[in-house]
Amino acid sequence: MVNFYLFVLMCIFLIILPGPDTAVATKNTLSHGRSAGFKTAFGTCCALMIHTSAAVLGLSAIIVKSAFLFSVFKYIGAVYLIYLGAKTLWSLWKREEAASAEAQPNVQFEKSSYFKQGFLTNILNPKVAVFFLTFLPQFVESESNTFVPFLIMGITYTALTAVWFLLYVYLINQISVFMKKPRAQAMIEGITGTILIGFGIKLALEKAHH
Predict the structure, then answer these.
(1) Each residue of 61-77: b (16+ CB within 10 Å) or e?
(2) What is d(CA 166, CA 57) in angstroms, rounded to the nearest whole number?
(3) How many angstroms separate the CA atoms of 107 and 123, rounded?
(4) Are 7 and 156 in contact (CB under 8 A)?
(5) Do residues 197 and 81 touch, judged by C-beta distance below 8 A?
(6) Contact 88, 192 (CB under 8 A)
(7) Whether this model's pTM surpasses 0.85
(8) CB of 68 closer than 8 Å to CB of 126
């Protein structure tokens, strides 16, 4: 492995860039509190470990090289993001239209799905597989065995992601204390729901590079 510290620095910059994972964590933290945000982040990190294992074992290479498999993952991921965004906007509309009596069962459903949302948003995004197979090799000598370096880099990236989300969710939760007014929450949920749909459409229109 070469330039490990440069790899860590690049990871930090890439991780803090907003993406679908950040949007889902933000939505759940603002809507349902710090615990929901942490569960979402945990789901994201578990998915990243699977991507790491796939990269190490070469499965990601198969997905990236197969236009069909790439498209399957891409469209499933895009549909899921659009579903999450639409569901957020629908919940917002229902809460504004009806009183909290109807919202209560919906919150109960959400509680069981924070981890799942974080996990599926990441695992169904083929761009993560592409990222692992294009970014990680930059820091490995071409003639060396990639198994151990890939494993170390994947674990490092996942650990840095976990640290970032812990800090991010905590910060967002602290800020949300000052944003508990219904109007502010409605605006934020509306924005994040729209962003999730936007990410889904963007992912669906993404062209595979082979």
Answers:
(1) eebbeeeebbeebbebb
(2) 29
(3) 24
(4) yes
(5) yes
(6) yes
(7) no
(8) no
Largest CA distance in the chain: 64
- CB proximity list for 125: less than 8 A, separation 6 or greater: 20, 73, 77, 203
The span from the CA of 28 to the CA of 117, in Å, is 9
CA dist 28 and 37 (Å) reads 6
Q: What pLDDT tens digit does each residue of the chain (210 aa) get?
A: 678 888 898 889 888 888 889 989 988 888 888 999 999 999 999 999 999 888 888 877 777 677 777 777 778 877 877 887 887 777 777 766 654 444 444 444 455 589 999 999 999 888 788 778 778 877 877 656 778 888 899 999 999 999 999 999 999 888 876 666 667 667 777 887 888 888 888 878 866 544
- Report the 10 Å Cβ neighbour count for 140: 17
Residue 156 tokens read as 């490092």
Of 169, 171, 160, which Cα lies nearest the Cα of 38? 169
CA 181 to chain centre: 27
Q: Is the dihedral of CA 162, 163, 164, 165 positive or negative?
A: positive
Q: Are 48 and 132 in contact (CB under 8 A)?
A: no
